[in-house]
Amino acid sequence: MKASQFFDNQLLSKYNTSGPRYTSYPTALEFHDDFKHDDFIKAIENSNNRDLSLYVHIPFCHTLCYYCGCNKVITRHRDKADTYLEYLAKEIALQAPLFKEYNVKQLHWGGGTPSFLTHEQITTLVSLLKDKFNFSDDLEMSIEIDPREIEMDLAEHLFSLGFNRLSLGVQDLDLKVQEAINRVQSTEFIGDFIQHAKTVGFQSINIDLIYGLPHQTPENFRKTLDKAHEWDVDRISLFSYAHLPSRFAAQRKLRDEWLPNTQEKFALMKLAIETLCDYGYDFIGMDHFAKPNDELSIAQNDGSLHRNFQGYTTRGECDLLGLGVSSISAIGNSFSQNLKDLKEYYKAITEQQHAQVVGVSLSEDDIIRGEVIRELMCNLYLDKDKINEKYNIVFDDYFAEDLPLLETFIDDGLVENTSKAIAVDQKARLLIRIICMSFDAYMKKHINQQRFSRVI
After folding, report:
1. Using the 8-state DSSP alphabet, how is residue 24 labeled?
2. C-alpha span between 193 and 198 (Å, rounded)
3. Which of 69, 91, 152, 387 is least surrounded by CB atoms within 10 angstroms?
């Protein structure tokens, strides 16, 4: 894969604006408290799916990473996790009977830091989930790990419980960058742990990297990229740091003068994409990289790549149930989210017998637009006839008010719109979020609000 095809500096600068990442449509900004738990139950009953993906949110972290915008609880007291697991067990016991006809195909633990939990706590939670839900034999089990607070034997323990995928938060390996973001970690230990996990039996290992962090330069970030190649990881998630100090208080600790400017940040992104492609990784969607034999690469090549709240995935056929504080579910034609505050989550589980606080039932228009956006986000291509047949519409008539918004992209050679299809050029891959906004019926009310991250 030639990385040069993804870059046109002039066009990338022209369209470097803010936009949703479209892990759902409508986005979470459209969730509202008129969506009740009865609506959630109705969505389960009316869903055509009987395959399930489980997401479990573990909110705890030992220390605060200053760049982070995730929902987390900073504590050194592991006993707080015991309390959380008690309420999580109650939520699982309440939710599982609603999904007794489902088979779980995918289980992912995110956070926060799931590896905050002790071996015993991890075992207890896995056992509970397997006892309450029907797990498929070909289950994909993944977990996010912070390499700063673990021992080498965590790999054996996780593998013995059925986990077969690991994701390590690396972000950057340069000490000056790490000190600025309050995330100092051992490069040697990370490398040793990855190799050990492979020896234990893990077949898929991902690392997260971030560009645009304080004090990053092409020289020091190149060393991080080279080390990722040396570790021979299977996937790499490359994210742009979104500096939104008005929304995330910890980011106020990062001085503006420490951050790369727009041109420097663009250079970091370009370096990362070119380097990883040169190392033989396939560029997946807009921010993932995978080996050519990886499921993500295969799915992108055959047009079956999907996108949900965890990013790009191969399990698009599954309903998604989120468990734990702040977690999001996608069941049938609905989205819903749990309370974000820990104490309120505990109270709701006790008093309401669920923690759901907001959600949305999808209209037919939401469903159609969601599929259009998802196809473009995942495959850079949309078959109009397929949409017409599936939803009994005439695409160009249905989207008559939206298609003119593509004209600027068409004029710049980024998009081709024919009677049969919409095709996005490879040099627009990094702009796909902005292109998809053309089909977002909710965008007008958010267009002047800084609610989304910038493309670069």
Report:
1. S
2. 9
3. 152
CB atoms within 10 A of CB 455: 19
Phi-psi category of residue 80: left, alpha or beta, with phi > 0 → left and psi -120 to 50 → alpha = alpha
Task: Give SS3 for 180.
Answer: helix
HSE value, Cβ hemisphere, 13 Å, CA-based, for 439: 26
Evaluate if pTM is beyond 0.90. yes
> Pick from 69, 59, 11: which is nearest to 451 by CA?
69
Report the distance separating Cα 299 and Cα 218, nearest Å: 31
User: How far is Cα 273 from Cα 208, in angstroms, rounded to an integer?
Assistant: 14
Q: How far apart are CA 440 and CA 435, in angstroms?
A: 10
Estimate the crossing angle of helix 342-351 against helix 79-95, to 10 degrees: 40
For 55-101, write each residue's pLDDT tens digit. 999 999 999 999 998 888 999 888 899 999 999 999 999 999 999 99
Residue 5 structure tokens? 């095809």
Strand order through the sheet with 334-338: 282-284, 288-290, 235-240, 204-211, 165-171, 135-145, 103-111, 51-58, 319-323, 328-331, 334-338, 356-361
CB-side exposure of 59: number of CA atoms within 13 Å? 24
Token pair 């663009």: residue:
266
